[in-house]
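name: query_chain
kind: protein
chains: 1
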Amino acid sequence: DDDHPIPSHAHAWAASALAGGISGASTWGIIYPFDVIKSRMQTSPLERHLQKGMWTVGSDIIRNHGVKHMFRGLGVTLVRAFPVNAIIFPVYEFVLMQIGNWRSR
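structure:
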C-alpha cells in the first residue's frame, strides 16, 4: 500500500533486526556454559589444562560452585548480544543487496 506511512522495506529491516537480536541472544543462552568451561581452561595453569578435558572441568565447576556458576554473567552477555546481532543482521542483508546491485550493473 503506497499510502501507508511506513514503507514496506522498513518492516523487513525491523523484522531482520528482531530476528538477529533473538537469534544472537538465543545462541549465547545455549553456548554460555561451554564458554565458561573454555574460559576456565584458558586461564588454568598449563599442566592442569593438559590433564583435564571439557567434561571434567565442567563437572569440577558444578561440584565446587553449583550449576548457577555456569550461567554467571549471562545477563550482561545477553544485553550485549541482542543489540549487536540486531544490527549485524540487517547490515549483512544490506551489503548483500548492494553487492547484488553492483554485480547487475
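note: DSSP finds four helices and no strands in the chain.
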